[in-house]
From TrEMBL:
InterPro entries: Acetoacetyl-CoA_reductase, KR_dom, NAD(P)-bd_dom_sf, Sc_DH/Rdtase_CS, SDR, SDR_fam. PROSITE patterns: ADH_SHORT. It holds the Pfam family adh_short_C2. Transmembrane segments: none annotated. The keyword Oxidoreductase applies. Keywords: Oxidoreductase. Residues 3-170 form the Ketoreductase domain. GO terms for cellular component: cytoplasm. NCBIfam families: AcAcCoA_reduct (TIGR01829), PRK12824.1 (NF009464), PRK12826.1-2 (NF009466). It comes from Roseovarius azorensis. This is 3-oxoacyl-[acyl-carrier-protein] reductase /acetoacetyl-CoA reductase.
């Protein structure tokens, strides 16, 4: 039977590319979204991938949503924790609200997504967790104290989960995309974006599909001994 994959934030941007790539590899895929009903309905129409609406920042909603996915599609074998937001501002202007929204969604959201599926993975002796972190969690970024903190936190999460899951057949890894051509990066002021592209030796933004291919590899049986690792895909912009 096909394995079931859950992709949070899976109907737009990098998440949509991941959902589609996993479906193309034969997985049964559930994609979550937070608010954009229209985009989700269009995504389902075009791809046949079921979408589910909940706020990853809320533990109870995540738990209920995951129970619904499992009732519809079977036990979740693969989690791609991709949902994320930005609330960029220089630190002296960053509000506690901007801090909290990003922490709740990007960091606590990973806990809320993985925690409900973890006991089932342990019982079944198989699981694949991939957390979508960021180059900015590795190097920090002007105006992203909040976002960089969450993305660095992702790396701590996967390194710890890897140690807990290894004996139970569960792997946990991170992908750190560089600047990828998505709405999130397009929202950066054009002049700033141009200067960012100037810092990428590849001379271009990445494509969402280039991140999706990292994920399909990490969740495959071929990657069974890769656990607690980080794949950086950033066009040579930054090395750890
Ligand atoms: N490094 C150093 N200084 C910088 C800077 C940088 N990268 N960016 C801006 N500055 C400076 C400006 O030159 C300006 O300096 P002066 O005051 O001396 O003129 C100051 O910082 C900015 O002041 P503003 O009052 O204009 O700032 P603002 O409140 O309007 O905020 C901003 C503007 C939010 C910082 C905007 O420039 C921005 O969005 N920058 C992009 C931040 C970024 O790269 N975010 C990544 C988004 S993509 C993503 O997150 C995906 C991923 O994982 C890679």
């Amino acid at each position: 039977m096909a394995r079931t994959a859950l992709v949070t934030g899976g109907s737009r941007g990098i998440g949509a590319a991941i959902s589609k790539a996993l479906k193309a590899k034969g997985y049964t895929v559930a994609a979550t979204y937070a608010g954009n009903d229209e985009a989700a309905a269009k995504f389902t129409r075009e791809t046949g991938i079921k979408t589910y609406k909940w706020n990853v920042a809320d533990y109870d909603s995540s738990k209920e949503g995951i129970a619904q996915v499992e009732a519809d599609l079977g036990p979740i074998d693969i989690v791609v924790a991709n949902a994320g937001i930005t609330r960029d501002a220089p630190f002296h202007k960053m509000t506690p609200q901007q801090w909290k929204e990003v922490i709740d969604t990007n960091l606590t959201g990973v806990f809320n997504t993985v925690h409900p599926v973890w006991p089932g993975m342990r019982e079944r002796g198989f699981g694949r967790i991939v957390v979508i972190s960021s180059i900015n969690g590795q190097k920090g970024q002007f105006a992203q104290v909040n976002y960089a903190a969450t993305k660095a936190g992702d790396l701590g999460i996967v390194k710890s989960l890897a140690q807990e899951g290894a004996a139970k057949g569960i792997t946990a890894n991170a992908v750190c995309p560089g600047y990828i051509a998505t709405e999130m990066v397009m929202a950066v002021p054009e002049k700033v974006r141009e200067s960012i592209i100037g810092m990428i030796p590849a001379g271009r933004l990445g494509e969402p599909e280039e991140i999706a291919r990292c994920v399909t590899f990490l969740v495959s049986d071929d990657a069974s001994f890769i656990n607690g690792s980080t794949i950086s895909a950033n066009g040579a912009q930054f090395f750890v």
